[in-house]
Predict the structure.
Amino acid sequence: MGWEDVRAEVLRRIRARDWLPGAMIPNEEALAQEFGVARATVNRALRDLAESGLLERRRKAGTRVAALPVRRATLEIPVIRQEVEARGQVHAFRLLDERMALPPVPVAGQLGWASGAAKLYLETLHLADGKPYAHETRWLDPVHLPDPRPDFASISVNEWLVTHVAFATGDIAFAAEAADPRSAEVLGVPQGAALFVTERTTFTAESAITFVRLIHAPGYRMVTMV
Amino acid sequence: MGWEDVRAEVLRRIRARDWLPGAMIPNEEALAQEFGVARATVNRALRDLAESGLLERRRKAGTRVAALPVRRATLEIPVIRQEVEARGQVHAFRLLDERMALPPVPVAGQLGWASGAAKLYLETLHLADGKPYAHETRWLDPVHLPDPRPDFASISVNEWLVTHVAFATGDIAFAAEAADPRSAEVLGVPQGAALFVTERTTFTAESAITFVRLIHAPGYRMVTMV
DNA sequence: CAGTGGTCTAGACCACTCG
DNA sequence: GAGTGGTCTAGACCACTGG
């Protein structure tokens, strides 16, 4: 009887409605005795179920079955090259633009960059088997780059950052947007086409590193297994 | 020195590039000695970092810093009512259609339903402060419903399922799609508008329960904190 | 203040897998 | 075969928080 068995049995009782949504379940010590395992083993199992949103735990208050379970889905976000290669296709990219420029106010604001400070703008087209796969536009604080800058025409910005900059946190957002003229041209789709967009902001402990928008070619789906 | 401190210190060394991407790090016992904690405490910290994709661990092989860290983002997918109420708005919904019908072949196929078997089709419009929020279309195997069926005009299908059916697993997909005539009409947007679509398939241990498409009103964003 | 979960420890054995 | 992570145990103390 390992912790995964304990988890399975608890899960079974929830599913069988032995323990109803919103109801308390026995405390760790009671379950440990019933299953004949140490309390730490029960703790491990219940902690896991709580992390996945099926249980709610509070000291002193005890453990209850979540009334309205929040589904938690984990997305894996690999570098684009891996994503393309995982589909059995060949990845390539073209650096379309690279220059210092003033970031738009909303971007500077979200990243906490002083307005009026020029940052590095990079525009890249990713290809899968030679066909447009994603249109990437990125603002990057050059303070995180060595002098001279890496040659982003030969190594993708993202891969350089991932292997050379210690990034800490960030947030990711997904949205559907109508293709603007530039993305439409680059991806070879009609203006206004519905495109899947990923936006990522990345910070180190102290300061913002980069803001990137990935505009995916039509048909892109993001899938998760629960 | 708790396990979170150990995790923080290991993270610091990765960020400081003391330990380079792809490189091995000391084993648990060595770290336990260095930090003056039990091996189980180090294990907890390293396991956590491995789950978030920063470390790769294998028995006998040891622990190494991930060469190309896979970002893992966790999405919380609450019931729509909670989502709307979290924005400080009032949730309401209207059941637009409810009937037995033959599901489209791709749907039946994905759910493992015999072709030619009629299932329950439900169409719902969700409102936030009275304005269209999401257009929901759903196929549901009535075998999971009591007789007579719940009154889905007064309790939303999703909430009924979540509190009454023990669902096990499922997958979730996100995509951008152009508004079809029906969704455009119901949501009050032009045909062809770019809309964010969520598709969920839900299974019990034995059989498929439901397939649901949520077509969100324009401007919808799905956000995650890493 | 008292009950519950959260964590730590020291030691042990097991499971996997590299060499 | 041997080294590493994975897990379990029994006991202890701590931290939070409900009554």
Remarks:
- Helices of chain B lie at 3-15, 28-35, 39-51, 80-86, 105-111, 157-164, 181-187.
- Chain B has a mean pLDDT of 92.
- Chain B has two domains: 3-65, 80-216.
- Chain B touches chain A through 52 residues (CB under 8 Å).
